[in-house]
Design goal:
InterPro entries: HTH_HxlR, WH-like_DNA-bd_sf, WH_DNA-bd_sf. Keywords: DNA-binding, Transcription, Transcription regulation. This is Helix-turn-helix transcriptional regulator. It holds the Pfam family HxlR. The longest helix has 25 residues. A 3-stranded antiparallel β-sheet has the order 1-3-2. It is globular, with a radius of gyration of 19 Å. The chain has a single domain, classed as Arc Repressor Mutant, subunit A (Orthogonal Bundle). It contains 6 helices and 3 strands. Helix content is about 70%, strand content about 10%. The model has no long low-confidence stretch (mean pLDDT about 90).
Length: about 120
């Protein structure tokens, strides 16, 4: 019995480390929104992502995209156009987040209804 408890605790710690690793990569105010913008359209220009995400600055978007590139979630392509166009798409590894992003979107829609519905009903 003691051995099972220790195995369970060891497995739980491993799972908690995995959650922390995920949060380290995806944390911050903007990363999920950036990934969602790219995921929805498959490929997005820098200016399109900037337009999609209300409140983000050029500098912050650039910083966040670089971090997502470093974590192999986003691929940056420079297109041979005049003026030069930069396009982003999810990598194969980044595409593994698609289901999570879709679930977060669905949850966010339901959560907004829950909160606004209750607030409206109480007035």
């Amino acid at each position: 019995m003691e051995c099972r408890i220790k195995d369970f605790q060891k497995e739980h710690k491993k799972e908690m480390r995995a959650v922390q690793d995920s949060m380290d990569v995806l944390s911050g105010k903007w990363k999920i929104s950036i990934l969602s913008s790219i995921c929805y359209y498959n490929k997005r220009r820098f200016s399109d992502i900037l337009e999609d995400i209300e409140g983000i600055s050029n500098k912050m978007l650039s910083k966040e995209l670089k971090e997502l590139e470093l974590n192999k979630l986003v691929k940056r392509s420079v297109l041979d156009t005049q003026p030069v166009t930069v396009q982003y798409e999810l990598t194969k590894h980044g595409l593994t987040l698609k289901t999570i992003i879709e679930h977060l979107t669905e949850w966010g829609i339901q959560h907004r209804k829950e909160i606004i519905g209750k607030a409206a009903g109480e007035q």
